Amino acid sequence: MLSIIIRTKAMWCVVRSDASHQALQRGLDYACGNGADCAPIQSTGLCYLPNTIQNHAAYAYNSYYQRNNMAPGSCHFSGTATFAKTDPRDKGLPDYSELYSGFRRRGCSGGWNSCLNMLS
Questions:
Q1: 19-40 residue pLDDT tens
Q2: Minimal CA–CA distance to 74: which of 4, 1, 3, 7?
Q3: Residues in domain X8 (predicted)?
Q4: Which of 8, 106, 109, 111 is the most buried (most CB within 10 A)?
Q5: Phi, psi dihedrals of residue 35, rounded to the nearest 5°
């Protein structure tokens, strides 16, 4: 079977809603230990709240994916991640809109929008 991967500029790495907390923690640890910018999701970071494994993994996964130039294989995390062609900042993505709109703290008052822009 031949697989073709088409990458575009508009691609995000997002957490799967069915991923277990333990698997997300392993993925988060991997991403943060291998190049993702995880400072914003530390307790003093601008994107720390809400303090959930889903939100922190979402940030770290996408940071890792973007820092690896959206390379094939950089958004897998043992099956706990998937690609989104629709910007997670858009309210029209029902599985993720609530998750990503939850990022709020100090200078990150724009929620996920502000935190995602920090990755650029």
A1: 999 999 999 999 999 999 999 9
A2: 7
A3: 11-117
A4: 111
A5: 115, -15
Q: Give dist(CA 23, CA 101) in Å, integer.
A: 22
> By the 8 A CB rule, do 58 and 100 touch?
yes
pLDDT at 60 > cutoff 90: yes
* Alpha helices by DSSP H, 20-90: 21-33, 53-67
Q: Which tokens in the block code for residue 83?
A: 């690609």
Structural tokens at position 39: 């400072």
pTM to 2 decimal places: 0.72
- Which residue's entry shows tokens 């073709």? 4
Q: Count the residues in the chain.
A: 120
Give the residue extent of every domain in the chain: 27-118
